[in-house]
């Protein structure tokens, strides 16, 4: 299995490191040619406007609707259908998930924090590292909530798309990457 990690900015090396323990090949993706033969693509955190613009400058057309995507933090924003209050001009979104998100939703006081995320498929909680994290303010009926922090949905799935508002690549716990590979990508084969 070959899984790609969009390598524009942010913690793509950390994602690649986690994935290396789980799949045969991990490929850093920067150009359309890098998409060839991929079974899944991770869109890491960073700055969603920058990532969106980068996708729009070429890669976007090469990402088929059926390619499983895993968006984390800024990556989740890029997958969203809309941004609360309206997307700023020049903020391209892939619009693959029926979620509306608020960027930097926790304000200055709690810009970055860690908290327990409860998962639907595993009793052991996941340590969520939230860094200038977005919040999912609403989601449609086709979206499954797979993880919550308190009452907030923070890990969601819609078909071949998986997304979380925190940074699973920064903790020593591969369960979300494993879920993406075993439940989302393999399901799709
Ligand atoms: N605040 C960033 C944005 O809105 C996301 C932060 C992150 O990915 N850690 O794009």
3D structure, described in words:
- This protein has 189 residues and is of the alpha/beta class.
- The chain has a single domain (2-188), classed as Class I glutamine amidotransferase (GATase) domain (Rossmann fold, 3-Layer(aba) Sandwich), CATH 3.40.50.880.
- It contains 4 helices and 12 strands.
- The protein has a 9-stranded mixed beta sheet with strand order 2-1-3-4-12-11-10-7-8.
- The protein is globular, with a radius of gyration of 15 Å.
- The model has no long low-confidence stretch (mean pLDDT 95).
- The chain binds glutamine.
Strand content: 25-35%
Unreliable spans: none
Any guess at the CATH architecture? 3-Layer(aba) Sandwich
User: So how many helices?
Assistant: 4
Quaternary organisation of the protein chains: single chain
Q: Within the CATH hierarchy, at the fold level, what is the topology?
A: Rossmann fold
Report the structural category: alpha/beta
Q: What is the CA-CA span between the terminal residues?
A: 11 Å
Order of helices and strands: EHEEHEHEEEEEEEEH
What's the CATH C level? Alpha Beta
Helix content: 10-25%
Overall form: globular
Q: Please outline the major beta sheet.
A: 9 strands, mixed
Mean pLDDT: 95
Number of strands: 12
Radius of gyration: 15 Å
Bound molecules: glutamine
């Amino acid at each position: 299995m070959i899984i790609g990690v969009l390598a524009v900015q942010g913690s793509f090396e950390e994602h690649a490191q986690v994935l290396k323990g789980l799949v045969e090949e991990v490929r850093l993706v920067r150009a359309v040619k890098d998409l060839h033969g991929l079974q899944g693509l991770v869109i890491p955190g960073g700055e969603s406007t920058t990532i969106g613009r980068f996708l729009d400058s070429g890669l976007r057309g090469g990402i088929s609707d059926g390619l499983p995507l895993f968006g984390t933090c800024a990556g989740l924003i890029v997958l969203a259908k809309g941004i609360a209050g309206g997307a700023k001009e020049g903020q391209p979104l892939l619009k693959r998930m029926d979620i509306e998100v608020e960027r930097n939703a926790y304000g200055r006081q709690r810009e970055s924090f860690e908290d327990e995320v409860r998962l639907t498929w595993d009793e052991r909680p996941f340590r969520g590292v939230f860094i200038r994290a977005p919040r999912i303010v609403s989601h449609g009926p086709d979206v499954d909530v797979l993880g919550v922090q308190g009452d907030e949905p923070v890990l969601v799935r819609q078909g071949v798309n998986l997304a979380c508002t925190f940074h699973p690549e920064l903790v020593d716990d591969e369960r979300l990457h494993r879920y993406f590979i075993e439940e989302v990508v393999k399901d799709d084969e």
